Amino acid sequence: MVDSQYYLSNDIGISALDCGEAFRLLSPQEKMYAHNLSRAAWYGGLAVLLQTSPESANIFVLLQRIFRKQTPAQLEQVATAAGLSSEEYQDKLKALVWASQAFQEQPSEMEALWDSCSGLLYSLEDRQKQLGLGDKGITTYFSGNCCLEDAELAQKFLDSKKLSAYNTRLFKKDNGGKACYEVRLASAVQKGQNYMDGECESCCGSFSFEDKEFTVKRGDYGPLMEKVCHYLQEAQTYAANENQRKMLEEYQRSFTLGSVDAHKEGSRYWIKDKGPIVESYIGFIESYRDPFGSRGEFEGFVAVVNKAMSERFAKLVSSAEVLLPELPWPREFEKDTFLKPDFTSLDVLTFAGSGIPAGINIPNYDDIRQSEGFKNVSLGNVLAVAYATQKEKLTFLKEEDKDLFIKWKGPSFEVQVGLHELLGHGSGKLFVQDDQGKFNFDESKVVNPETGEPVSSWYRGSETWDSKFSTIASSYEECRAECVGLYLCLNKQALSIFGHDEQDAEDVVYVNWLSMVRAGLLGLEFYTPESKSWRQAHMQARFVILRVLLEAGEGLVGLEEVTGQDGKPDARITLDRSKIHTVGKNAIHRFLCKLQVFKSTADVDGGRALYDGYSTVSDSGAYNFLRLRETVLLRKEARKMFVQANTRVSGDSVELVEYEGSAAGLICSFTERFQEDAEQLETNLLELNKRDATCWRSCKSCQTDAT
């Protein structure tokens, strides 16, 4: 039971992400634009392998080499000839590797590749089971000898140099008994190359900081960033307007030089590019998987606007200034001006990264979001596939709730995503005093509603939300946005925008709230008792909300442990729909106000105490959450996987290459995606990984030889 969460069933759901009709409606120029942006995203997305764990890149290369030589169907025949049953063919990987054509052609190379990753691939040692910093897990954002104190010191150093951590990694090594740190910037430019642009030269070099030596170097993920820049250059030829061209120029400069400032400039042009037919974003974006919460994982998406659905979101944007005052914090804690963003529904063509979300609110740069704006996108074809639910697989609900849940889960989630992204992430003000001493609020008059006293803390200089709240920043913000969605979905005007009125509207509210408390229970899968840590920001956020609503009492939410029809442990979660608008709303009102006040005032101690308190998972109190976690693991369903299409240039036109929604389709999409330079790409990945192979051990010294 303890290790059941580390086993994945062979019958995991795999679905094709349909974008065929949307792509066919594009003009030839738009198709070429989308193609080149997709190529940039896919090559950049491979950096995630180097941002995750020591074995990730080698596993990818191992599988690519096997499947480039033989399709899944051909390999199944090989497996049968080798005496493996159809079930064993999916499970006994080593036997399959040895029987493969790739191994027959290059036995020593394939065996070495297997040896380099197989131990870690199957390891269930505590530190190697999960992402984490120091002895709490594994990460390749930091060398293995880094701990929380090292991360905090590095953040102070970066703040002192006005450098963002988004595109960096940190390596610690011993130099004659003195700790030295190497900060690597992701860039195509390597040390020793001539620079076409002198910008940011001052950021590279060696520096003394708090009696420690820091060295800042370019060149991380160099070959991958070169490919990204190449395709961004190609895409500029097909840009629809000047904003797109300048956006791509700045992105290219960012990935060439390792400049986050250039990426911010590109993001400004991106915000100005209103209503494009082909929408995209690319870079080191979300910090969910950095154990410290400051470094961004590479992602890139390319999508086509769904005009019909986008009209609803446009109405929501138009109503934002009416809905924002409904939120439970004082006016002074809201942005001075709501900068109306683009909010579109998109059909995803390409989403390269570690996962595909249902909606996005970007850019994540606080200064831009506060004063210049942002964009929201809802990924329509992802929603259509990801949240289709089968009744027999619905866990932890009463039978009488299941049909209603299935009927309204999709529409209710659409409402939640819209409110979460636009008015959740898009709301709230950060109180800032800049380097010149100027405040963006009246520090003598603004009162903290939680204390009744004048505000006494704020962000200073280059401090940001991520740098201040670090390890809890991502989950805390997702929780705040989720609470905004729950709170505002009670507003009839908001529901009417999405076409829900009267009884249908009440059903949408009920299912939205029921879905949230159920998700809070399901979130226990992502908690690790051994390290007392959460592994997924959104699921931690939903567990926190469950705790808040359980604490509200008065029978609003019920949670009980029961025995299932199969005789095994089970659980039931219930929601009294008659109390959502009273008990539930009041509870979220109080909690949401606290979240915003701590965020606005940079009150890290207060925010952490509140959030960590509700995040605690224990076996004491009214609910034995540790035992419930075991039940969740027993009953869990694997998350769906998506098969994405490829694009291919044929003469003067671009073709969309689609695949079936199966394991074979998923594999084929990846082998064809990188077939044009597969061997060189695989060599680059292996060399990048090998360079740092000794750095991931939890040891006292880490010798790096980065360029």
Automatic annotation (TrEMBL):
Catalytic site positions: E421
Entry cofactors: Zn(2+)
Keyword vocabulary terms for this entry: Acetylation, Aminopeptidase, Cytoplasm, Hydrolase, Metal-binding, Metalloprotease, Protease, Zinc
Reactions this protein catalyses: Release of an N-terminal dipeptide from a peptide comprising four or more residues, with broad specificity. Also acts on dipeptidyl 2-naphthylamides
Keyword DNA repair: no
Cofactor remark from the record: Binds 1 zinc ion per subunit.
Principal place of residence: cytoplasm
Protein name: Dipeptidyl peptidase 3
Annotated organism of origin: Amphiprion ocellaris (Clown anemonefish)
